[in-house]
Amino acid sequence: xxxxxxxxYENTPIFVQNVLTSWNGYRKTRSRYGNLYYSxxxxxxxxxxxxxxxxxxxxxxxxxxxxxxxxxxxxxxKEFYKNIDIEKIRTVEDLKTLPVLDKEILLHxxxxxxxxxxxxxxxxxxxxxxxxxxxxxxxxxxxxxKKAFLDFFKKQHGAVNLExxxxxxxxxxxxxxxxxxxxxxxxxxxxxQRIYSSYYCTQENAAAYIEDLEKYKPDFIxxxxxxxxxxAKFINRNKLxxxxxxxxxxxVAENVLPECRKEIEEAFDCPLRDRYSSSDAAPFVMxxxxxxxxxNLYSGVIETTEEGKMIVTSFNNYGTPLIRYDIGxxxxxxxxxxxxxxxxxxxxxxxxxxxxFRQPRSVSDGNLxxxxxxxxxxxxxxxxxxxxxxxxxxxLFKEGSGNTWFSSITKKSAID
Length: 416
Description:
Layout (H helix, E strand, L loop, with lengths): L1 H9 L3 H19 L2 H13 L4 H22 L1 H6 L11 H4 L7 H11 L9 E7 L2 E7 L1 H17 L9 E5 L14 E4 L4 E5 L8 H11 L3 E4 L1 H13 L11 E3 L6 H11 L3 E2 L1 E2 L8 E3 L5 E3 L4 E5 L4 E6 L10 E8 L15 E2 L1 E3 L21 H5 L4 E7 L2 E6 L18
Parallel strand pairs: 3-5, 3-6, 6-7, 7-8
Antiparallel strand pairs: 1-2, 4-5, 9-10, 10-11, 11-15, 12-13, 13-14, 14-16, 17-18
Helix pairs in contact: 3-8, 9-10, 10-11
């Protein structure tokens, strides 16, 4: 069905593609922006400057609620905690008595960890770790609470989603391969959003992107910083002065290096605001107006080992619950815990050492993200060592397996 929809989309005029993009955006908006979203967004705003005691009390209540839920709904956790009295886990300190969920355990038990099926899940996502492909399922409550957190974060920096014009740099495959001309964007009219393809965002095409941004004049920008960085380099190198000024730029999915931040902020004359939340639905860590990263206590629990490794428990993923999950990233706290000038009660992280993101690149065409990988890449279970794309075929190489998969694709590329 999806392939049929894609073929219809790719063979229609651009104005029809804008309508289809907007219709898809409307459907998602109905699911993402419901009563729970608005009530939780208001709750986050009210709780932002409460004292630390209130924040931790809320955290403990959410932890107890999550533990009761997983032992009722998840076959895996019923077995994982069978010799543990969950009712005795009342505080964050008590949480440390539960076993750690590592990536190998998660990979081999993912089907039993789910509390919903793929048919009943509101949305799903894919995460990758050392070649492992995992599908995460989300409930409607998960989706709406996560959107509330993200929009709360943006609102703190002056960006109001759904009300202000937004430019998004996305990995979604929105531009047909056979499209003539350099029109690398599509409109989602319903939420006042123009979606720019990160795939074609190269120095060769930068002028076309910037010309359209000048016409569109977004109030704020979000998306992959690697794509926005390409435009920033072009702007600064050519000493261009933009006729619009976004209130802020919000990074998505990738780590923001210091040189990348400097280039983007200089080009667009506005702050770049970063956040940490891996695709595993970890608790949110968000940059405040003073430029410091705060771990939001309302989104989950982050424990740290002596080595600084993060053990996370998320309150935003009831569809695929992750409790005491060894996410593989490290964190560094400030030497002196003096709070933050912004007034937030949420703890400050000095630095997060997340896994580096290496963006694959097509030999002949442009930047690739996981959104452009052929479907069988997402479907492989276990460890995927590497894959190659050649003309209209690709080969997957799986650890400990002599099998090879073939599939037809339209893009002529080569990746290793």
